[in-house]
Design brief:
The protein is an alpha+beta fold. Helices cover 29% and strands 34% of the residues. The chain has helices spanning 59-74, 82-89, 102-110, and strands at 7-24, 29-42, 47-52. A three-stranded antiparallel β-sheet has the order 1-2-3.
Length: 113
């Protein structure tokens, strides 16, 4: 079992796929499915991934926030310190839920036997 997981990089992959038809309800209209894959890579070689979002209109802005605001705060941090990582990311996410430490949770699960 790994005792420490130091965050080396955080990568994002925004994905936007057109739907075959438009889906709509009383308060939404959807022409694409969108998500962001966020990959957390540690110095120890463990990789965690989280898939988040379904916000087509804000996809690129959420991607920018993760890359430019959250990732620089988390590089060098202990991935297993989920609460600390969450607190460091909170200023950039006070009004959105783009990332919630899920990558750290995936990395933690990957280290368990």
């Amino acid at each position: 079992m790994v005792d420490r997981l130091t965050i080396r990089t955080i990568e994002t992959i925004p994905i936007r796929v057109p739907l075959a038809r438009t889906y709509q309800g009383s308060s939404y209209r959807m022409t694409h499915r969108s998500t962001i894959v966020t990959r957390v890579v540690t110095e120890e070689g463990v990789v965690g991934e989280a898939y988040a979002g379904d916000e087509d209109a804000d996809l690129l802005e959420i991607d920018r926030i993760i890359r430019d605001e959250i990732a620089p705060r988390l590089i060098g941090e202990e991935a297993l310190a989920v609460e600390r990582c969450s607190e460091l990311a909170r200023p950039a996410t006070h009004d959105i839920c783009a990332i919630d430490g899920a990558g750290s949770w995936h990395a933690r699960a990957a280290t368990r036997p």
